[in-house]
Amino acid sequence: MSKSIQLHFELPGNDLNLAGEASSKVKKTLNQLGLKPAVVKKTAVAMYEAEINAIIHAGGGTLTATIDQESIVVVVRDQGPGIADLELAMQEGYSTASEKIRKMGFGAGMGLPNMKRHADLLEIESAVGQGTLVTITVFL
Amino acid sequence: MLEVKKYFHSVTLDEEKCRGCTNCIKKCPTEAIRVRKSKARIIEERCIDCGECLRVCPYHAKKAITDDFAKLSEYRYKIALPAPSFYGQFKTTYSRSDILAALLKIGFDEVYEVARGAEIVTEATKKLLQLEKLKKPVISSACPAVVRLIQVRFPSLIDNLLKLESPMEVAAAISRKKAAETYKLNASEIGVFFISPCAAKVTSVKAPYEKEKSNVDGVLSMQDVYLKVVAVIEKNMGSEALEQAGYAGIRWAGSGGEGLALGTEQFLAVDGIQNVLTILEEIENGQLEEVEFVEALACYGGCLGGPLTVQNAFVAKTRLKKHIDKAKNKAVAVTVPRHDELMWTLDIEHRPVMKLDDDLDKAMKKLEELEEINEKLPGLDCGACGAPSCRALAEDIVRGIANETDCVFLLREKVRALAMEMMELEAKMPPVLDKGQTNGKGENGTRRG
Lengths: 140, 449
Ligand SMILES: Nc1ncnc2c1ncn2[C@@H]1O[C@H](COP(=O)(O)OP(=O)(O)OP(=O)(O)O)[C@@H](O)[C@H]1O
Ligand code: SF4
Ligand SMILES: [Mg+2]
Hints:
The complex is a heterodimer. By secondary structure, chain A is of the alpha+beta class. Chain A has one domain: Histidine kinase-like ATPase, C-terminal domain (Heat Shock Protein 90), CATH 3.30.565.
């Protein structure tokens, strides 16, 4: 049986200073495992976008990364407002971010499209009022 | 002269001066320093020569290996290549031509300004940005410490690097060629010496990553050359003809200079190793794709803040500004080279020094162990174990270069556990000594009461 590694992080919803920290730690781990730079990069971009979305749109959540011989799977889960129209949300430039969030440099509506571009597989489950579950898979 | 090892780097330790404090281990951006037996040790393959440890050491125990001035005597024709930051070291009573003339007085036959090389690189960069489809943002390769940081910690950004020769290499190649032609000299008769603000540039000459061999023969510390120059410099000793570079090249000495010269709005300039780390992290996360060019310099204030400079970066900046303003009145024509002639001839490689094991399964196992050990450590990052953080100690343990008992807290726990065990053992009497088991035959020997 081959091994797998699991990393788990809480994503605080109220502290934007910590936004990106979980991704940064996962990335460090991927480099310690000696994974290919291209794989690390793909994971980094997709994971970072998912992490930020959970923090700014959903008041925080959790991030779990599982790495085995075949793939990296990053699951970002939140109990926020959910996404009403996923197809719309996936479009480039679509964003519901507030003026305040935009001032901080987020809200270009590029996060989800970026995630799709970099992940090998992207699954998003979302229910209004219940939350969102994003699963990113990158093959090694 | 200098011996070149597999991973050459030019920052070294003065054993005598080092007291084994923890200042440097905490500042190192690649966690390359450990304290062992009261002395700091540099893990060779991790060092990027950024010079942070040189700056932070209260005992001045870290130094950069540079060439000795005496090396000039090995050559018939000696060319000085002053880095643009050199001008910022002197009082503004002296003009740039005075500084250049003084270099001729201390033993050089010719001076070629690296600032001039910078202008050529700028032109080549502009063309490259125009003609070729490069991965955005393009990251400047002007600072070798940043390039090495990318090799070690951000391998996915290697493709973003601007793969053009540095101003120093361009200056060296041009001046060497000209001297050889003009004076009919053999290559071995010409000595090209760079006057360096930092250790990183020394390394880029002794162990270049972008080509087989550097065009530079020796690297002198700016501090050493400064001392020689102040001894001979005089006001109005130089003629303006010595000045080949314009303001755009001189400006490269400070943060933003390279970017401004490109004339693009979409550039970002970052200086100081910690700030550079933040920006590289953002680029890796895909956050700065709208930026065309990133100028990243390891030193605060850019090369003016280099560890081998004399003046602090703020004073030097004010002084340099005078030279820049003066040069603004002067137009210089840059003969535009073909940018492809300035491309790197070697591609740089990822230096996977953070990797725990070549085998993924084994690496995972080590990572698991690392996490388990890390859990046990107190999380104080006190540095008493000689590693920069508890996590770094955990990593050292799984790499087999440290022990759990290097942690003073774990050691104390172990000692306490041992003491407890000893007390327990002491309470248990071996059968021969136990009162209850005596066979009644006399009582010679030890017996506890
Ligand atoms: N976890 C989430 N919970 C609730 N809504 C979300 C979540 N993730 C995305 N959304 C919705 O989808 C929209 C588009 O997301 P996307 O990440 O593409 O853009 P953005 O976050 O608004 O801007 P950017 O990512 O460019 O900073 C968001 O504005 C938001 O309305
Ligand atoms: S910023 Fe300049 S002086 Fe500092 S390490 Fe880089 S090249 Fe050297
Ligand atoms: Mg987003």
